[in-house]
Amino acid sequence: MTTDLTGASTSSTASTASAGPEFHWFLPTGGDGRDPGGVTAVQGRTAAATRRPADIAYLGQVARAAELAGFGALLTPVGLGCVDPWILTSALTQHTSRIGFLVAFRAGLASPTLIAQQADAFRRFAGGRLRLNVVTGGDSAEQRAYGDHLPHDERYLRTARIMAAVRALLAGERVDEHFDGGVDGHAPAGSAPLEGAQLVDPAVHHPVPLYFGGASPAAERVAATQADVQLLWGEPPAAIAERIERVRTLAAVHGRVLRFGLRLHVITRDTDAEAWAEAERILAALDPAAVRASQRRFAAMDSVGQARMAALHHGGTADAAALEVAPNLWAGIGLVREGAGTALVGSHDTVAERLAEYRALGIDEFVLSGYPHLEEALRVGEELVPRVRALTAVAAAGAAAAVAGVA
């Protein structure tokens, strides 16, 4: 089989609407605590955010709590401040029995053939409990620490090539790459064609979906042609609806249908007042110097998604309510945390309503988190997720009845 990098993935990636949204949880592999902090070592983290070390004893508890609470998978980040996700999640498969692992890897730091070998071994030994989160990287400083000096758009060209090759290899195909014209008219920088790449007896009965995030035009082209699930960070509903429509349209040009996932923090309590009191506590505990340092670093990044997060809070305020950028959507966490920087704040019923609204816009999967991740996995899984499922089931039944009435 020859992989053509000039076009879209030709694998079976079209999805059908599920009975309800999927819910996943986050593994805090840089350490955990009651307060948010940075994810990478480039930024650094406060002691309050890392009181609980990222060791197997603690992360095993988080994984088991998420499994007990009914989450489908655990998102494991990748970066200088995180333990290696392949090694960590392989270990955690021995501490869990059902929950899947959404393992992040940095595209371009290893051969697509090696990545496919690692993924195939994982799915074989873990009974298929694997999903892949393909990370291009939006922080040039961190990328240089890995020896990667490609500019922004070149990184995404390379990502498209890697996703196409990994998908084909995991499907049991032989990959012989031909860069005639390459992606978007030229070969990915720094890429050497694969010749005769093929896995030995791959576990093809365990499909591995490819998750992918990115908000730039270059990233959206990759999502439209290569991703199974496009991950979005929490923005106001109107912005999310616009992005979903744009990527759906791009994917349709290539005959593809994507699923969409939303990455959000949640601060959910029995009452709205209790939840907002916790948001106030988190904001009051942030070190102003850490906020300033984080914002300077974010401003130097070439990530469009990070710029969209920063634009929501404009550098911060002493008032938690002023950081509410849409009903119950709070941007305070993004003052110090790169990446996903927004949280839904409110009672279990209120937050469930907001998540159901995102579901109605086209979100198929939610990747949630809360501080600290151990206790919040149980709270969110037991109190919030059932409420969302009930709301979305009612909405789905209503939609089905309307369709039947028209028919």
As a whole number of angstroms, the C-alpha radius of gyration is: 21 Å
Count of alpha/pi helices? 12
In terms of per-residue confidence, which ranges show pLDDT below 50 for 5 or more consecutive residues? 1-7, 10-18
Order of helices and strands: EEHEHEHEHHEEHEHEHHHEEEHEH
The structural class is alpha/beta
N-to-C span: 44 Å
Overall pLDDT confidence? 89
Major beta sheet, specifics?
8 strands, parallel, barrel
Characterize the overall form. Answer: globular
Q: Please state how the strands of the largest beta sheet are arranged side by side.
A: 2-3-4-5-7-8-9-13
Q: How helix-rich are the residues, as a percent range?
A: 40-55%
As for the CATH topology, it is TIM Barrel
**What is the domain tally?**
1
Can you identify the CATH superfamily?
A: Luciferase-like domain
Descriptive account of the structure:
This protein has helices at 56-68, 85-92, 112-125, 140-145, 152-170, 217-226, 237-253, 272-285, 288-300, 304-313, 348-361, 373-406, and strands at 2-4, 22-26, 73-76, 100-106, 130-135, 176-178, 210-213, 229-233, 259-269, 324-326, 329-330, 343-347, 365-369. The chain is 42% helix and 15% strand. 50% of the residues are buried. It has 407 residues and is α/β, with parallel strands linked by helices. Strand 7, helix 6 (217-226) and strand 8 (229-233) form a beta-alpha-beta unit. An eight-stranded parallel beta barrel has the order 2-3-4-5-7-8-9-13, surrounded by eight helices. It has a two-stranded parallel sheet with strand order 1-6. It has one domain: Luciferase-like domain (TIM Barrel, Alpha-Beta Barrel). Helix 6 (217-226) packs across helix 7 (237-253). It contains twelve helices and 13 strands.
